[in-house]
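## Example record

The block below lists the input lines for one assembly entry, exactly as stored, with component labels intact.
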Amino acid sequence: MRSLAPESLMMSYGYHPEWSEGAVKCPIFQTSTFVFKSAREGKEFFEIAYGKREKSPGEQPGLIYSRLNNPDLQILEERLTLWDGADECAVFESGMSAISTVLLEFLRPGDALLYSKPVYGGTDHFINKVLPQYQIQGVGFTNFMDEESLMTLAEGKKIRLIYVETPANPTNALFDLQLCRKVADRLSTPENPVYVVVDNTYMGPLWQHPLKLGADLVVYSATKYIGGHSDLIAGAVLGRSELMVRVRTLRTFLGNMAGPWTGWLLMRSLETLKVRMTQQAQNAEKVANFLRNHPKVSKVYYLGHLEENDPQYEIFKRQLSCAGAMVSFDVIGGEDAAFRFLDGLKLFKLAVSLGSTESLAEHPATMTHSDVDEQDRAEIGISENLVRLSIGVEYFEDLIWDISQALDQV
Ligand SMILES: *Cc1c(COP(=O)(O)O)cnc(C)c1O
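Predicted structure tokens for the full assembly:
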């Protein structure tokens, strides 16, 4: 049998119609609990679920209770592993629950983590406001720091995780995952391995595969490209089995898994993931090129415009297969101008979030990144002029018409 591409498998992988009266699609298993065929079977299922013994070869985890597993989650998780080449996946009720579960599982009081700046606002809040209450310290680094600067930052701290978001939101700054891997290996000891965790929401699962670039775990807000229709909140974690057992176990006891309805919606979304994202990236290129030549725009942040002599270009070539569908730009004229642009849009929706079929626009300095420390904001280029666009699947000429007429009102 030929080895099939993920997009060819998204309609069927992991599901057998004979399980469900021949239904071509996996139904919604809207049930809290599952009937065992016998008491012995129930005992065996629990032994596996609670890690009392290893699975024997070919043994599948049995269905017990929907906080532990449910077909809509399990099949979805199997399908998600195909894009990233992961052993296992666990789906959560939000991106934040996926991220906070990973941080809680792999950090202990007295530990520290290195994290890339800027990270998503919720992640930043969890690292800087919640983890310190458990004596865990976050140490931020920017993408202009080299290996030795990271080693200096780590000095005297018990670093257990390196947490990276690349490309960074909203400026598309790239972090070098090879460098993060090197630093993690230098800081690791046999008793205390240092893991690299990558938030791949911006580019994944199609255009960047961090597990193949040295990461130990990948996290997603599945609310974004994976869901892709602005109609659900979900998250995912992927990695090798040894680490995923720990993530899944904490999920069981925090009880923050996604429900069957969300699982079903995400399976439906995955069928069109590649066509959606491909169209979005094509549209983004057209929009970015239009913005680059516009007299009211002073700078465009788009990965497809990186110059070959830019050190970021080297990282782009190594880590990404596409420039993506997120485009930010500076409007000449500060906050007033940016707001006139945003209020003038007719087709783009003025909303946070990203990765959906419809195009969205927002103002990072006063919206998604308003909580970021002012000095950090200046350092990473989040100015009053900056507008972030998430490009959707509309006809590109309509998107350009909308941007053009809104810029006329600036
Ligand atoms: C949205 C987002 C999150 C948080 O995900 P939720 O699904 O909203 O909880 C985390 N990281 C990134 C990069 C995001 O864009």
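Residues 94-96, 120, 122-123, 165, 169, 199, 201-202, 221, 223-224, 233, 235 surround pyridoxal-5'-phosphate (CB under 6 Å). The chain has a mean pLDDT of 95.
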